Amino acid sequence: MKKLISLSMIVLTGIILTTPAFAFGMFGGRGPGYWNGERYCNTPALRNLNLSAEQKTKIEALISENQKSTKPLRDKMFDKSLELRRLWSQTNPDRNKIYAAQKEVRALRDEMQDKRMAMRLEIRKILTQEQNEKLANSYWGRGPGFVPRGGMRGHGGHSRVVYCP
């Protein structure tokens, strides 16, 4: 019995001591925006463009600015989505309130898409003609199970891009 208890304590101690290693994650603790030590623009499609250091700097500045400018929109969209969920969870949901909340969420989403599109067009201006042509031809094909957009596209997957155009 003593052997079982001491063995259990050793295993439990080992689990407790190794837990922080799993929390650190594969990105080195910096989050999924970083990949191979770079903040943005290190997606498969953009690696093939051979961006210059100046282009990367400009693109990263545009992306960073876009993220800062859309932060209030994202926060507002989160709040409105939560409000919409609460409306749906009522025993007798008010149809008009649900439609109004859904309309607000759609408007916020449209505004975010417009800002993203403007950013992508600005990024395209930074690229050379050759890089733009290469980027235009870098769309993914059919993915597993013929799912549009390549199916499940994880980190380092075969998506067209993650943050950039």
From TrEMBL:
InterPro entries for this protein: Cpx_auxiliary_protein, LTXXQ, Metal_resist
Gene3D superfamilies on file: 1.20.120.1490
Sorted UniProt keywords: Periplasm, Signal
Subcellular location: Periplasm
Listed GO CC annotations: periplasmic space
One Pfam short name: Metal_resist
Major localization class: periplasm
UniProt protein name: Zinc resistance-associated protein
Species annotation: hydrocarbon metagenome
